[in-house]
Amino acid sequence: MTEHILPEDSGKKPAKPRTDEEKQAVLNRLKRIEGQVRGIQKMVEEDRYCVDILVQISAINKALNKVGFNLLERHTHHCVKDAIQKGNGDEAIDELMKVLQQFSK
Amino acid sequence: MTEHILPEDSGKKPAKPRTDEEKQAVLNRLKRIEGQVRGIQKMVEEDRYCVDILVQISAINKALNKVGFNLLERHTHHCVKDAIQKGNGDEAIDELMKVLQQFSK
Amino acid sequence: MTEHILPEDSGKKPAKPRTDEEKQAVLNRLKRIEGQVRGIQKMVEEDRYCVDILVQISAINKALNKVGFNLLERHTHHCVKDAIQKGNGDEAIDELMKVLQQFSK
Amino acid sequence: MTEHILPEDSGKKPAKPRTDEEKQAVLNRLKRIEGQVRGIQKMVEEDRYCVDILVQISAINKALNKVGFNLLERHTHHCVKDAIQKGNGDEAIDELMKVLQQFSK
Description:
Methane Monooxygenase Hydroxylase, Chain G, domain 1, 3 helices, homotetramer, mainly alpha, 0% strand
């Protein structure tokens, strides 16, 4: 489904800017994930057991998906809703579907 | 499936130590992933468009899964095979199944 | 996330009834999937090779997800959009998020 | 990853034939899944609410994955183990990895 690839930078902005609190909450989660990725590097350097590393990778995946889900939720409640109210709903929904499809691949 | 939770540190070691080349290859990928996670932090700080951030999160997920798959492959070809040859195969296979299940959740 | 369980029958209806053509297209896919499930039963009865059966199960999963994705797309373009236009958007979006979460588990 | 496509019929057999009890247990699950697929067809014919249908599709996916996981577990404990003990381990492990990859796509 190559036609479904989304651009890296759309040049768009969130319909409602994120508050400082919202930004900080996401940043805290991402910093924790960054720390987890560094933790795995240390495990590889120490030649730690493969399954132990895999367990950590699966934990990072879950943490990342949680961040993604929260962004998706906010996006739908603000950007998609806003677009629909302004009459550009179909475009926003198509974009939403493409990004969902990208996650399921 | 709480009974399926694996310990964070099993105290075990890979059946065959990773070579320096192998370690370096995994570390390079993990460093790139770490950079991608930092890139998302910057996107959040700059209040970038939600879907653009989601596309990056999905890319990190794929990159992490690739690292995980390679570790899994090596683990099965060495640790699981080794355990089976030494007569401890069932335990190693059960552990493998648990970690697969953790990834699919 | 037990609070996220959706009811088996909400008693609701699609905002825009499915046309006969739409129904038939979904039914055709589902009948093909039903045939594939029966095909796997035959494979089990004939004691066919495990990996061959797994390949078929993975094919059914993909076919089912395709049906699901199409329903989701239609649902968002009609029911969710319609609810937003009528001022009940947040409820419809929450419901959408719950069902997405159910798929990712 | 087209090179990773597995054949529909490998002509191989399980290392240890499934007992009648094992076959029956898998068949019972598959018959239940077949019934669920028919249930969705009825829901589509009755123009039932999209989200209600999606919930059912997600349930079938989970049930199918459970059957798949059990087959995978048995396959690894018998066929893969057997191949390793007979010295054909690497081929069996490669095949296992390919089928895992097919499920994650």
